[in-house]
Amino acid sequence: MIQLEHVSKTYKRNGTETIALNNVSLQINKGDIFGVIGFSGAGKSTLIRMVNYLEKPTSGTVLIDGNDVSDYTMQELRKTRKNIGMIFQHFNLLNSKTIFHNVAIPLILAKTDKKVIKERVMELLQFVGLEEKATNYPNELSGGQKQRIGIARALASNPSILLCDEATSALDPQTTDSILQLLQKINQAYNITIMIITHEMSIIQKICNRVAVMEKGEIIEEGNVLEVFGNPKHSSTKNFVRTVLQDEIPENIRKKINVIPGSRLFKIDFNDESNELINDMIRNFGVTVNLIYATMNEIKTNTIGHMVIQLIGASATVNQAVSFLSTKEIYVKELAY
Amino acid sequence: MIQLEHVSKTYKRNGTETIALNNVSLQINKGDIFGVIGFSGAGKSTLIRMVNYLEKPTSGTVLIDGNDVSDYTMQELRKTRKNIGMIFQHFNLLNSKTIFHNVAIPLILAKTDKKVIKERVMELLQFVGLEEKATNYPNELSGGQKQRIGIARALASNPSILLCDEATSALDPQTTDSILQLLQKINQAYNITIMIITHEMSIIQKICNRVAVMEKGEIIEEGNVLEVFGNPKHSSTKNFVRTVLQDEIPENIRKKINVIPGSRLFKIDFNDESNELINDMIRNFGVTVNLIYATMNEIKTNTIGHMVIQLIGASATVNQAVSFLSTKEIYVKELAY
Amino acid sequence: ACGNKASSDADEEKTTIKVGTSPGPYSELFIDAIKPILEDEGYTIETVDFTELIQADIALDEGSIDLNVDQHTAYYKNFNSEKGASLTKITPIPTVPTGIFPGRKESLDDIEEGDVIGIPKDPSNAARAYAILQKAGLITLEEDIELVKVTQNDIVENKFNLDIQEMDSAQIPRALNDLDYGVIPGSIVYSSGLDASTSLLHEDILKDLELVAVVDEKNKETKWAQAVKAAYESDEFKAYMEEHNQDDYWFIPEEIR
Amino acid sequence: MFQTTVTVDQFLQAMVDTFYMVGFSLLVGSIIGIPLGILLVITRPGGIIENSVFFKMVNPVINMVRSLPFIILLVAIIPFTRLIVQTSIGTAAAIVPLIIYVSPFIARLVENSILEVDDGIIEAAESMGATPMQTIWYFLVPEAMGSLILSLTTATISLLSATAMAGAVGGGGIGDLAISYGYERFDSFIMLVTVVVLIIFVQVIQSVGNWLAAKVRREN
Amino acid sequence: MFQTTVTVDQFLQAMVDTFYMVGFSLLVGSIIGIPLGILLVITRPGGIIENSVFFKMVNPVINMVRSLPFIILLVAIIPFTRLIVQTSIGTAAAIVPLIIYVSPFIARLVENSILEVDDGIIEAAESMGATPMQTIWYFLVPEAMGSLILSLTTATISLLSATAMAGAVGGGGIGDLAISYGYERFDSFIMLVTVVVLIIFVQVIQSVGNWLAAKVRREN
Ligand SMILES: Nc1ncnc2c1ncn2[C@@H]1O[C@H](COP(=O)(O)OP(=O)(O)OP(=O)(O)O)[C@@H](O)[C@H]1O
Ligand SMILES: Nc1ncnc2c1ncn2[C@@H]1O[C@H](COP(=O)(O)OP(=O)(O)OP(=O)(O)O)[C@@H](O)[C@H]1O
Ligand SMILES: [Mg+2]
Ligand SMILES: [Mg+2]
């Protein structure tokens, strides 16, 4: 379990201060896949570096499994860190060493048997699809390949906490998916805690169970992924949700809507419960329903989405249809053309 | 205009060869926003580095505005490069210099007047939202902030060609959007040619007019964005399209479908033309239409999408409805449950 | 021998004498005893410090300095022949003899096969050292050898198979603990504060190894050069030596006695 | 103990001479050595203005000069020294060999510092169409600055130590005082004083160097 | 021209002495200097085992040793030399001051090389819970290797040049031959031969250093 309590971090230089973290409190439970999302410069990297104490908080407390990290001796801190894998935003690979060696290094540090190292490293390289690069050096790899080596290295020593600082930002979606699946697999198999920093909603959506949204050094929203994204409160959160869930009608679709006099436009929830809505309205109220726009998305194992429909008919029938929608306990909002 | 003709690039070390580019031919016209997409390690960075000749092709020709770059003297090459802005995948900022100086450097090299530099740099920093970091140094910036500095630097000297190697990979979607809008604006205002490497389909979708899909050092598909993504031929291309256009019914939606005996499942195009389809089928054929899944997306100014509907009714009526769809010249495909 | 700045017509008027000085008693003697005499006669004495005798001779040859009082005849003659210079002596001057000093061994009678003996490595002092070793009957040098050119290779017989260590002369007093004997030039004996009377054997100063005041050939007859010569021969200087040489530390050549 | 034959004037003169020799040779040595070191980097195989003729000519010359014991160097170049400063003795004459001694030394240290600059920076310069001079001035030198300062510090201290040998040509200076009075005349008092002064000098040089380097690296 | 008073045996002995002095002092000097340089980096303010007591103690000592002209150093440590090698004369006695001369020099060069290692690498080491020893051995040293090799090359050449002064205590060697026969006894033939030999030595040392550094940097 990872707990941050009132953690702040301020950088000072020449008298000017940058507040990178401002009184952040957070709890990540064992086995969580915890996502942190936020705009560039929000303080995500700073936050994750608090966890393995690469950066000391200016104030506040970091607790790992209930122990205050600032009380640790260097030796205890090292022991704790051996249990925390980290994938760096900028990879931080050893340019002087082969890919094999780069992945092996946490095992070498732990004085693992050579044969075991070899097996483990080759297995990891296979996972990230780079076994044929084992004898190459980092500067002979593409950006995404380097990142994958960073991932393999962080996993090498089977850590019980994994910190990922934009671990897939340089990867194509397919490779990203396979990495995410791998993370999910080890999360389930070994109950390891994973903290993922990203600005890709799709990653949160795919594997995180909990999420924190950061802005200007603060956590502005936090909780269960579905809760936070199903019902975003802050405009930043909404902006992120919008990236996977086109919240508004795309501009050029809106332009092409056939504005029929007397017709009305509604935005309604679109989920497993609403499959039959259109059919029912047409059937029951004799109203004409045009489907203008629809989108649907999975967040973890839940589906959220919405659609925009145009109701055409006598004003009374349309009203009836709308009040029918209301009884369905789904979200309905009338839109202007 | 940029032309690559039969360009190959092979890296040799200790006798082993890595073919990073394999006989690639490509033409990018003036004013194009040309996207290059492909898996990690496909050869995208290598390709873009051919254009400003940071890397010499092992064989083949690179032509800029019709001139073979290999015929250039160093001086001519430098002159050409001054006209080509480049955003590096790994930023390559000067750690010893302030942010201001980093952005100013192309102007300093061009011996621009100090006052002009100051104005231009502050304008660019404002564009990328980092004017308050002008006196900071690169190692005091977050990953995304560094990337934005790289972008500002590449734009500083108003180049007529802009090469972007994953220029927004470290940025959140909102910042990415504002950068893309900026690129689009300067593309339109100055008719500059932009080459964008990315593995985010959404970027291609938002601003590119042409696209090349790379795989294993080769261009496997190339052309107008709508053509390539509207009708992807290679499986890699399809995979990329799938990332923005959930092509198949998400697993958990599929699981929850209420399998009504006798009902049939169809996947159909969903675009501006199909707004009234559901309504028409229900009205005209008395069939029940449940909307199971729908997604819609913009590619540049066009909309493509699809929906999955469940048709319930007597087998004859369902058949009638299906044949009605066929007359609409839209794509229809029956799905198994 | 080119690029001579001192123009000859000015020589007659020359009242400033530039002396190249080196560590050791000869320059000090000049400054303590000769300089006041010359100054009384209206000369101004300027000194330039050298740690390397060769450099002082080079400077003398090129005319950067006028006078040197830190070498013997054999040395400057060798310099002349090697460098094509034309240095010449104007007068012999008091000389401190080299001696064999006790190291781990108290007496030359204790000498044994393989004993280690330290001698100066610079040729000017090495010449004296080989001469004194020959005088002590420890080695035999080739006959007719030009003393200043003697090296280890000119030893035809080394009776006790002595291990002769050539080293910095200033290093020898400091290394006596690790040497059985040390051959130490008078100048170093003087500087290091060794008691000269503890010497086991004094050199017989050969004519060619007497220290001399040296100038460029063409200046030999100038007024100032003659003034220097006269100063060394003066009664005033004799009186000075009388006073300062009570323990016979200095060997005073016949010419100026 | 406190008796010495060295006068206060002599001592002050030695200080002045040392400052003069170190300062001047460092200045000229840097003017020669820094560009030379940079040239070694950029003309080497794979460098930005690869020039194997230059590289293969200059590299051995530097080695040659570096290989000569200082006193031999000093003698070997006397004709050259005289050509430059009209004399082969005195402080001025000592400066010529000191420069020749320190320049290639600086060149080697600079070469090592510049070689550590990240390839990406050089690529950035290339991509902007920077001329070789601009690449050096706006990219390589600033990025290597911290290391360059420490290299120059090291060179300055070696130079100070080498000025002690300047006494051979009557160059004077504190180091020479230490050798010709402290060592050769067994004057322990002046030995002590000069050594203390030298230690202070070096301490100051190194501290200034460290401070500047840390400042450039923004560690303080 | 070709006549000389130096015998072939003497010459060969000088070669052997030089090899012995350079080799041994380099070996021991590296054993002392490399760890010292690394310690200077890791104990400095902000270093991985920040230790201002150690840093503030050792830094001035290094400066102190670096400030002494070689001959003074040699004299100053005679008691120590005798303690170590039982004698104050001969090649063995020369090695002690050579080691003391070169160790802090190596330490400074190593310090400069190690300081150039990217902070990100040190962070990676920290994040893996590497001990300070592991950080040095598995991260800092390999990443700085190219630069370290060039630094040691520079130190070796300075050392070779310093052995010329070993003659002061009867240390012998090629450099001493050059000085005491070539220079002091005007033996131009031996001067030429020794200088050529020294140049070849330096050339070989530098070439091997460059080659190794390039190999480590994978430039060849
Ligand atoms: N210097 C080099 N030596 C050997 N192989 C190299 C070198 N540079 C690149 N490669 C190889 O060439 C291939 C293409 O690399 P490139 O950097 O162009 O990929 P990319 O498409 O940009 O990938 P990414 O999206 O991960 O950045 C990769 O397999 C890479 O390992
Ligand atoms: N060493 C430093 N000195 C001064 N300011 C710093 C330093 N490191 C980070 N900052 C500032 O702290 C803020 C948070 O940085 P951080 O790296 O945590 O952002 P981030 O959320 O990871 O952003 P990104 O998504 O762009 O990587 C930024 O405004 C950054 O400029
Ligand atoms: Mg970050
Ligand atoms: Mg790439």
Automatic annotation (TrEMBL), chains A, B:
GO terms for cellular component: plasma membrane. Keywords: Amino-acid transport, ATP-binding, Cell membrane, Membrane, Nucleotide-binding, Translocase, Transport. InterPro entries: AAA+_ATPase (IPR003593), ABC_transporter-like_ATP-bd (IPR003439), ABC_transporter-like_CS (IPR017871), ACT-like_dom_sf (IPR045865), MetN_ABC (IPR041701), MetN_ABC_transporter-like (IPR050086), NIL_domain (IPR018449), P-loop_NTPase (IPR027417). SMART domains: AAA, NIL. Residues 2-241 form the ABC transporter domain. The keyword Transport applies. GO terms for molecular function: ATP binding; ATP hydrolysis activity. Coiled coil: none annotated. Transmembrane segments: none annotated. The keyword Oxidoreductase does not apply. Gene3D superfamilies: 3.30.70.260, P-loop containing nucleotide triphosphate hydrolases. It holds the Pfam family NIL. One of its GO terms (biological process) is amino acid transport. PANTHER family: AMINO ACID IMPORT ATP-BINDING PROTEIN, METHIONINE IMPORT ATP-BINDING PROTEIN METN. Belongs to the ABC transporter superfamily. This is D-methionine transport system ATP-binding protein. It comes from Pseudogracilibacillus auburnensis.
From TrEMBL, chains D, E:
It is a multi-pass membrane protein. Gene3D superfamilies: MetI-like. The keyword Ribosomal protein does not apply. Pfam families: BPD_transp_1. One of its GO terms (cellular component) is plasma membrane. InterPro entries: AA_ABC_Transporter_Permease, MetI-like, MetI-like_sf. GO terms for biological process: D-methionine transmembrane transport. Keywords: Cell membrane, Membrane, Transmembrane, Transmembrane helix, Transport. It comes from the Bacteria. The chain crosses the membrane at residues 20-43, 64-85, 91-110, 148-169, 189-213. The keyword Cell membrane applies. PROSITE patterns: ABC_TM1. Residues 15-209 form the ABC transmembrane type-1 domain. It is found in: Cell membrane. Belongs to the binding-protein-dependent transport system permease family. CysTW subfamily. PANTHER family: ABC TRANSPORTER PERMEASE, TRANSPORTER, PERMEASE PROTEIN, PUTATIVE-RELATED. This is D-methionine transport system permease protein. It comes from Pseudogracilibacillus auburnensis.
